[in-house]
Design brief:
By secondary structure, the chain is of the alpha/beta class. The protein has 15 helices and 15 strands. β1 and β2 form a beta hairpin.
Length: 376
């Protein structure tokens, strides 16, 4: 079967099972998560392999510098693209994956800027170059179509969270997934059949990482050790949560740096350890505020993302949600959830199936998205 015929068949047959690789790089800039799944793009999926490739210090510095000054876009895009290619090749070599074993690669790219009100979301990476260098079709730019249609463009993992929960025999509804990355987002799944709600709820690891980097010259608060030494200031948190954005109902999304000025002003008189503790507690309290938008309180709460390994963040979440907090299922793999999500979204994009709706991003109707690049 010719390549063009093969992909035409995939797009026209919803029952066809495809092998999709997902590449995810979050706003925390910790590296690339790569997952390979086999899926029909709807209700059948299996995680085959997963691994994380950490960004080196030089690449992180180059990305952070570009986010601040927007200088040398071709240079930084080339660095990110080349790192993606190197990681993909290493992944395929390490797990003995042949080129013909992969039907499509979903590449998220590195988020540089996100402002849906200006119809602008920017994930830096060259999908066409990756397709040529790996010689496998690549789908990238997952968010842009939704933003152009008036949607938030983020978060996009809601349909994947629902697919995971629906596949579990012991699932209970409503359930909530909390993902703590550079920002925090949730998916509220009311029942097995309806489209879920999915939206950013506020800060994630981003401000904590920035604080410990500034005062301790370390990239993040490993295991929440610094935060556990401090005391959270509830009055300051309540003042932050009075900001208009937190009272705005979903759908909504955030740029990683949206609250930087507010946080800097609010926390300026606290000790460093109390700043970290307060930011950690804020994640739990903004979750509580976000759940107030729903008439029915969730029966289960699942946590994923880098913040799920921070013991200070978890301590505060347990204080507020211990009665519903549940460990992730073993076959879900908390580290792999977002990479699997973009593999899953790539399969939907390939088949032209929707992955955003009004409840997820605020668009009218439903939409698929992404740009498919074939190797030359």
């Amino acid at each position: 079967m010719k390549t063009s015929d093969k992909y035409s068949y995939f797009m026209k047959n919803n029952e066809t099972v495809v092998n999709c690789m997902g590449i995810m790089s979050g706003t925390s800039l910790d590296g690339l998560d790569i997952a390979l799944i086999r899926t029909n793009a709807i209700d059948k999926f299996e995680l085959k392999q997963f691994y994380t490739y950490e960004y080196n210090k030089s690449l992180k510095q180059s990305i952070n510098k570009f986010i601040q000054n927007r200088i040398s876009i071709k240079f930084v895009s080339k660095l990110i693209t080349e790192f993606n290619v190197k990681a993909i090749k290493t992944f395929m070599s390490d797990f003995n994956i042949k080129k013909n074993d992969i039907d499509v690669i979903g590449v998220h790219g590195q988020t540089i800027f996100h402002n849906p009100k200006e119809k602008w979301t920017w994930q830096l990476c060259d999908g066409k170059s990756i397709a040529n260098m790996i010689n496998i079709p690549v789908i990238s730019n997952f968010r842009y179509r939704d933003v152009c249609l008036g949607g938030e463009g983020a978060p996009l993992v809601g349909v994947w969270h629902k697919a995971l929960l629906n596949k579990d025999r012991d699932s209970i509804y409503p359930s909530v997934f909390l993902n703590i990355g550079g920002v925090s987002n949730i998916t509220y799944i009311k029942n097995k059949y309806d489209i879920p709600y999915s939206f950013d709820i506020g800060i994630g690891n981003g401000p904590i990482d920035s604080t410990v980097a500034e005062y301790f010259n370390i990239p993040f608060d490993k295991d929440g050790i610094i935060g556990l030494k401090g005391k959270a200031n509830i009055d300051i948190i309540n003042n932050i949560l009075s900001h208009t954005w937190f009272n705005h109902p979903p759908p909504k999304s955030l740029d990683k740096y949206h609250f930087d000025c507010i946080l800097k002003s609010s926390l300026k008189n606290l000790s460093t350890i109390d700043k970290v503790a307060t930011l950690s507690k804020l994640i739990s309290m903004q979750l509580k505020k976000s759940l107030s938008f729903f008439s029915k309180y969730p029966e289960r709460l699942y946590i994923s993302g880098g913040g799920s390994k921070n013991l200070c963040i978890l301590k505060y979440i347990k204080e507020d949600f211990n009665n519903i907090l549940m460990p992730l299922k073993k076959d879900w793999n908390p580290d792999a959830i977002e990479a699997q999500a973009f593999a899953y979204l790539a399969s939907k994009s390939l088949k032209g199936l929707p992955y955003t709706w009004d409840r997820i991003t605020g668009i009218q109707g439903e939409s698929s998205g992404g740009i498919l690049d074939f190797p030359d």
